[in-house]
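@channel anyone free to eyeball this complex?
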Amino acid sequence: MKVEVHHPRPDVVVIAPEGRVDAVSGPQFRELLKQQPEQGRPFLIIDLEKVPFMDSSGLSALVSALKAARKHNGTVVLVRPTPQVRMTLQMSMLDRIFAIHDTIEDALEALSSLLTTS
Amino acid sequence: MKKTHAQSWPKTLPKGWELNHLLRQAEEVGGDFCNARYREPYLYLLIGDVAGKGPTASLLAQQFHTAFDSATLVSSRAREVLHFMHELISEGLERADTFVTLAVVVMDTRDGSFTYASAGHTSTYWLHYEGPQAEFLEATGFPFGIPAPDQSYREIEGRLEPGDSIWLYTDGVTEVPDRYNHIFGRAGLLDVLLAVREASLDRQVAAVRRAVGLHHGTQSLPDDMAILAIRRTPEHPVLDALPFVIWARYMQVRSATQRIAQQIRLWAERFGWTPSQDFFFQWELAVSEVLTNIVQHAYVVQHAHPHLAPGRIQGCLLAYPDEVVLDVWDAGVPFKGELATRLLHHEEIPPEEGYGLYLVQQSVDHIAYRRVMERNWWQLRKRWQGEEGKHES
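replying in thread with the prediction:
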C-alpha cells in the first residue's frame, strides 16, 4: 500500500493511504499511524479518498491511532471516505467516534481550536 | 488432458443426472483409466488403475475398456459386471505380470438406486447432500491379477438422493505431495467435495483439479490421475456457482475476496438484479472478514508459524434466484466465539479489536457456523431483492 504523508504544521500530519486496507496492509498502516503521536504529531488527518475498501483491520488501525493520539492530547479526524469506507464506519458506529470532513482544509479548520490551545 | 480412454462416453444423459470425468496422464501412455456407458435406464461407470506405467499398462487399460463394454451388455449389477470382466481379462493379466484395481458403479437413472463393486479399488466417496455427510466405500474384493482364494465380489447397494454424488478416483489425486512432502490425502479431497457440493458437477471436478494443483504448487503433476463423478442434480439447483480453493494466507484472502465481489457484480448484470450499491460493499466486507477470521483463528498455529504448511480454505459462492450464498470450509481448529457479537462503545475510545464478525453479521441476512465432519463450515446468505440497509446511518 502506498501512503502519502505530509505535515501542514509541526504537530499535524496528513496521511493519505492509497489502496485496500485489509489484513494485508492493515498492520503496516496501523504502525504508521501509531508512531505519529510518539514523534510529536498528535493531530492526525487521515485522507481516505483513495481507499476503495476497508475492513476491520483498517478500523483497528484507526482506533489504535486514536488511542495513541489521545495519550498525547491529540486526536484523529477522517477526510472524504469513499462510499465503502463510509459504510464500514457507519456499520461499526465509528462514524460517531471520528469526526469526518469533506476536505483537508475543513479538517484543519475544525482542528484549529484544538491546535491553538494545545 | 488426454481422453483416449473414454471412448464410449455418453453423449446425453437423462434429465437430473450429471456425469463428469478428468483423466490426466503423467506420461504419454498411462495406467489410469475410466469409462462410462449409458444403456437405458442404466448408467455404468468404471475406473481403474493398472500397477505401473508405460505401454503395457496402457495396452491393458485398453483391454479393460473392451471388457467393460461387453460386460455392460450382460448385466445391470456391479458385481456381475466386475465378475464378467474378470472372466474376460484374467488370462491376459497373468501374462502381463501386473495387477489392476478397479471399481464399477451401475446406476439406475430412474430412481437413483445403484450397485457398487470394487476389485481392490479403495478410492470412492459417496457424498450425501443432506447433512452433508460422506461415506468412504471400501473394496468388495481382491484386485485383478492377484492370486486370491476367492475371486467373487461382494456388492454395495445404495440410492442417490437428489444432490448426492459418487466420486471414483485414482490415487494420483490423493497422493500428490506438497513441498513439505505432505500428501493431499483423502481428507484434502473431502475438504473440497464438501465445500463445492452445491456447484454443478463440472465445476466441482474443476475445483478438485485446482485444489490438487494448489497443493502440489504447480499444475504439472507427478502421477496419473483419474476422476469419474456422477451426481443426481439437486431439486433446487443453483443458477451459477464460483468454487474457490486458497491457502489461508492474507494475500490469497484478498484475491479471493476481490474475485468473489467481482462475481457478484457479474451475476447482478447477468440475472438482472438491481440491489443497492451497499449490497456489493456488504458482501465484499463480509467475505473479507470471514476469510480473515479463518486465517487468524482456525489456522492460528499455521498463521503464527509461516514455515509450517499453511491451512487451506475452500468454498463456493452460489447464486440462487432470490439470494447469494457463500459456503466456506476449513479444517482448522473449531470456532469457540459467539456469533451474535455486539459493539458497545460506552467508553470514549472504542475497542481496537472485535469488529470482524460483527461486521459480517451486519452485512448479511444470515450467518451460520457448524462443525461438520471435523471441519468448520461457515455459511453467509443475503437476499439480493428487497434488501435493506441493516446498519444505522
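from a first look: The first strand of chain B starts at residue 17 and ends at 24.
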